Amino acid sequence: MPSVAGLKPSEDKLEIGSILRYIGIGNTSDVLRNVCYLLYEQEDKKNWKLFVAEIEGLFRVQLNAPKYIPATGLLKMSYNEGAKKNVDLSSLGSGTKQAILLFVYLLAFPNTVNLLDEPDAHLEVIRQSNIYDKISDLAKKRNSQLIVASHSESLMNRAFGKDLVISGMFGEFEQVNQEKYVKAVLREIGYEEFLIAKQRPFILYFEGTTDFDFIKAFCKKLNFYNIHQFIEENVFPYPVGNDVNKVEPF
């Protein structure tokens, strides 16, 4: 489920199969009102009230019930914000629309496995962790599972200790148990450096590039071919000049 992009002023009312197809191909913006309508039309209004309360608590926005217009086959939906009344849903900020999609989908479709591509997109940092907490708890209550792809350090901080965190670097997936490791991935170390570390796990600091060439030449001269091969295959040369402050572990 990708992030919500632009939102049109209205939507055609769709059947459930069409709604799921649009979501499946990533066109979440085309069916946001439809999913809200599905939730609102449930006989038990408990989930709709919970949905409205969550959005109001997060964004100080009161959602109005979606309306179906049989004459045109369209769905419309509005919100109230302070003195502004019945403003079309398309006027909301991207972060608010994103949160609406996450909450309404989890409430409307229980017992599901949901793939979320950067659900923190368009959200302020302070709201990223808060919303993650809420949708994570909501998914568990609705017997659903979330598989989230994210680069947000704030979101990762929340995930540790309550959910499973997996690294997908280099096409290999492994559980990450150290919060410090993930922070380094997100903030300090680029993909190129991780790739080098994966291929060559040892670092040799030296003053200039000729020094490294001398070392390899000595290995050949002394017939230390096994050491020469080890250097070629496992050691990353890292020139630091005369600046010893550059000598630090990756």
Kindly state the percentage of residues in helix.
Answer: 40-55%
| Total number of helices | 10
Would you tell me the structural class of the helices and strands?
alpha+beta
Distance between the ends: 35 Å
- Integer count of domains: 3
Q: Give the beta-strand count.
A: 12
* Spans of at least 5 consecutive residues with low confidence: none
- What fraction of the residues are assigned to beta strands by DSSP? 15-25%
For the record, the CATH class of the largest domain is Alpha Beta
Rg (C-alpha, Å): 26 Å
Any guess at the CATH architecture of the largest domain? 3-Layer(aba) Sandwich
Give the structure's gist in a few sentences.
With 250 residues, the protein is of the alpha+beta class. It folds into three domains: 11-163, Rossmann fold, CATH 3.40.50; 164-199, no CATH class; 200-246, no CATH class.
Quick tags:
250 residues; alpha+beta; Rossmann fold; 3 domains; 3-stranded antiparallel sheet; 12 strands; 45% helix; 17% strand
List the helices and strands and how they pair.
Layout: E1 11-12, H1 16-24, H2 32-40, H3 46-59, E2 62-63, E3 67-69, E4 74-76, E5 78-81, E6 84-88, H4 94-108, E7 113-117, H5 125-141, E8 145-149, H6 153-159, E9 166-167, E10 174-175, H7 179-187, H8 191-199, E11 202-206, H9 209-221, H10 225-234, E12 235-239
Parallel strand pairs: 7-8, 11-12
Antiparallel strand pairs: 1-4, 2-5, 3-4, 5-6, 9-10
Helix pairs in contact: 2-4, 3-4, 4-5, 5-6
